């Protein structure tokens, strides 16, 4: 999207984005961590909290401008402009699109491969936009709208991701209209130009071309690319503290949360024993089941018979009504 002159104002859409993103993230068995990280990065850049405000360049310093990038070699405009957005609606629309596309793509590959793909698509979409703008200037002397235009936003990468995602299906939907997947990105490009004023045509076109080139290159390459291997190494380093803490503080089963019916009988885990009558898991400090009053057996505790003195006629599995009666009797509420 083309940069405006006014500072964007909040209109309350970010909390809705956060709620939706968290809801989608936690309902999935396999967490799309890279997608979540990208959304968080874009949101933090937009919000500019105090601890980042003095580090992040201003939006005027990072706007993608082919003329400035090529003339002065300003690479921060090349790499950082996708993470800046002109307003809250611009950010929320792009992040919802990233959430939907990212969940599907990251679920179809591992996170390291997805991170590698996003990095490649970002560089290629920016490069394509630069190449198109320069070509229009050189061959057609057309520089008014494109070569000197400032633009920001993640849209170019999203269009590239859409091309990659559509390559895995036969049909797609653009604003609710079913379209063959090969033409879906082109249709969305045309509709975006007609329906959304101020969007960067070159940025979106560069994203589509980047997606097409990526698919062609990925199809001709066997095995894991070097960039994916690098991301796997980085993720391995980042996971090491988590694995260390898990080994340092292993999860322990909480006493008093056994279950009635089914399961194995006898000793369960260290520090607990499972009642052979009702399968309730009791603390090792107890020799009588808290649920049904049956004594612990075969381990030197209680009378060794496995039958509570209060229930001399026990045989077979206990019914729920019998369990209820024994528990009420045990705690004096009969």
Automatic annotation (TrEMBL):
Keywords: Hydrolase, Membrane, Metal-binding, Protease, Transmembrane, Transmembrane helix, Zinc, Zinc-finger. The keyword Metal-binding applies. The chain crosses the membrane at residues 114-140, 186-215. It is a multi-pass membrane protein. GO terms for biological process: proteolysis. It is found in: Membrane. Pfam families: Rhomboid (PF01694), Zn_ribbon_RanBP (PF00641). Its main location: membrane. This is RanBP2-type domain-containing protein. Residues 269-298 form the RanBP2-type domain. GO terms for molecular function: serine-type endopeptidase activity; zinc ion binding. The keyword Transmembrane applies. Belongs to the peptidase S54 family. It comes from the Eukaryota. One of its GO terms (cellular component) is membrane.
